[in-house]
Design brief:
The protein is an alpha/beta fold and about 400 residues long. The protein is about 40% helix and about 15% strand. The chain contains 14 helices and 15 strands. Bound molecules: adenosine-5'-triphosphate (ATP) and magnesium ion. It is found in: Cytoplasm.
């Protein structure tokens, strides 16, 4: 991000930070190049950090003590920060950055002036410039100096919605909600599309998908559309085609055709799926090739190179795992053949589709009868356990 578009991203980010913290009274905000400041107005920092670290577009956050830009004030703020550390470290170093050139001491001098002050107060402590347990950072600017030592990794990526819109194929499984989260993390606004085969699939299966989509809205902080596509007629027709081993291939291609139509009307420029290479028969290279040719839109597969356990770890972190493992049948599991093809042939598949009179009419009908619901974030309490103790997202 360079030049003027950087400012647009940062403005968007600031607005999303404000939205996420709208419940905190009297909090004030400002931004400088590449950095956002939140003045807490007395609110404890832990729950605020817990919420902010989930926002897309933030690389990291730090609780900082701000003070006047004077030597004694800075030394005293440094002491406060050191004293606030739970367990006293054995080694540390001071890293001063002097953005305000009018400050009377150089950053090199300041490293010593602050370091010596701390060492006098903590006789057990020693300096280690290479691999210190604690790096005390001092950022001297004209209007204030910021002192901090914690750097909490945040979700990273781009601010939500800064990279356009895509449709997420959302099943009730573990993978697609994670794929959706990863797409959103990269700045894609997402609308979800779910195919159901009511009455073969239950009302609970639908509720489960609604719940998963709603969970995703928590991370964007804004509403999300969920398109519920009636897939029963197409599925039963394909199931009767006498090509058991190709049913999944045919079903997926029909799904993509319908999704492409929905994309046209909703202005989406891509389709996100939860596929992961080799996980099931429909996710071999050959299968994905034949399936993918049913659409012109780019297929975005964030999980393609991930292992199941890595996907599950993220599902835990984003709070979708518990819902995903509820036992309700998905429309695909229901019609799962005993030996699905891992190596379908495009021409054979196209011939079968051409022989199924009425497939395009059925696709039209499914598009027309798609129900759209809008889901709003039902802000669960921010996880407020000390966020600095959690691992990075990746
Ligand atoms: P998931 O855990 O997301 O269900 P999976 O490993 O079970 O994925 P499949 O069931 O083969 O794999 O589905 C592959 C992808 O196709 C899903 O990740 C999802 O994006 C899409 N998909 C499958 N079933 C549906 C459905 N009923 N509605 C919408 N999308 C679906
Ligand atoms: Mg599935």
């Amino acid at each position: 991000m360079k030049g003027r578009n950087r400012n647009q991203f940062e403005k968007k980010m600031l607005q999303q930070v404000k939205n996420a913290l709208s419940g905190y009274e009297g909090v004030t905000y400002w931004k400088t190049y590449g950095r956002l400041y939140v003045k807490l107005n007395g609110h404890p920092w832990e729950p605020v950090a817990g919420r902010l670290k989930e926002l897309f577009g933030l690389v990291s956050l730090s609780p900082v003590r701000s003070t006047e830009s004077g030597l004694e004030e800075i030394r005293s703020a440094a002491m406060t920060v050191m004293n606030a550390l739970g367990k006293p470290p054995k080694t540390f170093k001071v890293s001063v950055k002097r953005a305000w050139k009018g400050f009377p001491h150089s950053s090199h001098e300041m490293n010593h002036l602050v370091g010596a002050h701390i060492l006098r107060a903590f006789p057990e402590l020693s300096v280690d410039v290479r691999n210190p347990e604690v790096e005390l950072k001092v950022d001297i600017q004209e209007e204030a100096t910021y002192v901090f030592c914690e750097v909490i990794p945040a979700a990273g990526g781009f601010p939500f919605g800064s990279n356009g819109k895509a449709l997420l194929l959302l099943s009730g499984g573990i993978d697609s909600p994670v794929a959706g989260w990863m797409a959103m993390r990269k700045g894609l606004e997402v609308e979800a599309v779910h195919f159901h085969s009511y009455p073969y699939t239950s009302e609970q299966a639908k509720d489960k998908v609604v719940e998963l989509a709603r969970r995703l809205t928590y991370f964007s902080g804004v509403s999300m559309k969920l398109h519920l596509v009636p897939f029963t007629e197409i599925q039963t027709t394909l199931a009767q085609s006498g090509q058991e081993h190709l049913i999944i291939t045919l079903m997926r291609r029909a799904m993509l055709r319908i999704t492409e139509r929905i994309a046209e009307s909703s202005g989406a420029g891509g389709i996100v799926t939860g596929e992961s290479l080799g996980q099931v028969a429909s996710q071999t290279l050959a299968s994905m090739n034949v399936i993918g040719r049913a659409t012109q839109l780019p297929l975005i597969k964030p999980l393609i190179m991930m292992d199941k356990q890595e996907i599950i770890n993220i599902a835990y972190r984003i709070g979708t795992y518990e819902t995903s493992i509820l036992p309700y049948e998905d429309c695909c599991t229901l019609f799962l053949p005993k030996s699905p093809s891992t190596n379908p042939n495009l021409r054979v598949v196209e011939r079968i589709e051409a022989g199924l009179g009425g497939l395009s009419d059925m696709i039209e009908t499914a598009v027309r009868d798609t129900e759209v619901i809008k889901l709003y974030p039902n802000a669960p309490a921010a996880k407020s356990d000390n966020p600095s103790q959690e691992d990075a997202w990746f």
